[in-house]
């Protein structure tokens, strides 16, 4: 693929940047972004939210998940099938009780979590290694989210796809391939970019 080499070097650079961030800075920025989203109209109108259980170096949505559960919203995180390279949103009702350490040390939903139909997701908060202001996303290379987003976009019900990241993960331009799915908007702790369609 024409962009693979560039993507690979960009992944290496951003991973190094994330590794250098202090845990206190990660926690403070994560809280700032979660507050920014939970006070937005996008969040207020959402009924079912797809989140993720963050890796140690990722921006954590745990404060937002806690708030959303308190607000009686349906909160989902992806259940990953490593064999088929697909993911299915499943409902969690507690960060403490519904997550377990799975493959590669990832926090994963326990097997008894209830699957939620893709069409029910009204707001999806998508992680990535990097984003650009145009809404392009650099993932980790497995394609789980790109496949899920493409599938979700084919459904009739509306959804807002929001890339979330630290300011340090924003780059001027993410190289893209045909299968890459853009975000509707990208939100960092200090700013927000809305993709102009067309």
Report what the structure shows.
This protein is α/β, with parallel strands linked by helices and 198 residues long. It has 5 helices and 11 strands; from the N terminus they run αααβαβββββββαβββ. The chain has a 7-stranded mixed β-sheet. A two-stranded antiparallel ribbon has the order 4-5. Strands 7-8 form a two-stranded antiparallel sheet. Strand 7 (130-131) and strand 8 form a beta hairpin. Helix 2 (23-38) packs parallel to helix 4. The radius of gyration is 16 Å and the shape is globular. The two termini are 24 Å apart. The mean pLDDT is 92.
Brief description of this entry?
The chain has helices spanning 4-20, 23-38, 41-45, 62-70, 144-153; strands at residues 48-50, 74-81, 86-92, 99-101, 107-109, 123-126, 130-131, 137-138, 160-164, 185-187, 192-194. The chain is of the alpha/beta class and 198 residues long.
Give me the Rg, rounded.
16 Å
For the largest sheet, list the strands in their spatial order: 3-2-1-6-9-10-11
Number of strands: 11
Q: Which overall shape is indicated by the principal axes computed on the Cα atoms? A: globular
Strand content: 15-25%
Count of runs of 4 or more consecutive helical residues: 5
